[in-house]
Write a structure and sequence with these properties.
- By secondary structure, this protein is an alpha/beta fold.
- It has one domain: Rossmann fold.
- It is built from six helices and eight strands.
- The strands form two sheets. Strands 4-3-2-5-6-7 form a six-stranded mixed β-sheet, sandwiched between helices. Strands 1-8 form a two-stranded parallel sheet.
- Bound molecules: guanosine-5'-monophosphate (5GP).
- The site of guanosine-5'-monophosphate has 17 residues, from β3, β5, α4 and β8.
- Keywords: Glycosyltransferase, Transferase.
């Protein structure tokens, strides 16, 4: 039986707040690439905490990668947060705009890749390898100078042996950051996946609307 760990929006906001300082100390990103769908919300929250006074907002680009396939719930009539099972290969559902103009914005930058959870690390390995390849190709084709550096940020890292690997330099230089480590055999349930919305929240919203 997989242990489910439920996280709230508030806890995620606090994790991002706590991590922002560490990210700024270690990396100073110019741009974020959120892996959809789980990386979108953390990337947006991080953007607020990473913004320096009178500095620009850090742009967020999105890529879509899919490794997991949904398992039918044991009781299909029960709305709950579904646990998923790993697929075997990463599928691209969305990728960068590979036009010269768009790619020239990535060359020579510090790029933070954001996802919600690092499980087998297959998705992160794919994202880092493919993004490094595409940016290096664009750098050569456009004749641009400057090293592009990638870092990875996840809310949760599962404590387990990983199938995927990240570049040695990334790990050594502290460019892999996880806000929290969770047990390897758990399933983290994120609030944006919830199918059951808490009654208390509805009550609170109703109360606010009627005041
Ligand atoms: P990995 O490639 O590291 O095995 O899996 C990464 C992706 O699988 C995540 O981006 C996420 O979509 C999904 N995933 C893996 N473990 C969990 C989990 O515990 N909870 C949720 N909600 N998604 C997970």
């Amino acid at each position: 039986m997989v242990e489910k760990v439920y996280v709230t929006y508030n806890e995620i906001h606090k994790l991002c707040q706590k991590s922002a300082e560490e990210i700024l100390n270690r990396f100073q990103p110019n741009l974020m690439i959120a892996i959809g769908g789980g990386g979108y919300v953390p990337a947006r929250i991080l953007r607020s905490f990473l913004k320096r006074p009178s500095g620009p907002n850090i742009p967020i680009q999105a890529i879509g990668l899919s490794l997991y396939e949904s398992l039918p719930p044991s009781d299909p009539s029960a709305p709950s947060t579904p646990v998923e099972t790993p697929g075997t290969k990463v599928t691209r559902t969305q990728w960068l705009d590979l036009s010269s103009l768009s790619m020239s914005n990535l060359v020579g930058k510090n790029i933070l890749i954001v996802d919600e959870v690092d499980d087998t690390r297959t998705t992160l390995q794919y994202a880092v390898t493919e993004l490094e390849k595409d940016v290096e190709e664009a750098r050569k084709n456009l004749g641009l100078e400057g090293e592009t550096k990638f870092a990875v940020y996840v809310l949760h890292n599962k404590n387990k042996p990983k199938k995927g690997h990240l570049p040695e330099a990334m790990v050594k230089e502290g460019r892999y950051m996880a806000a929290e480590t969770v047990p390897g055999n758990c399933w983290v349930c994120y609030p944006w996946e919830a199918l059951l919305v808490l009654y208390e929240s509805t009550l609170l919203v109703r109360t606010m609307l009627t005041v």
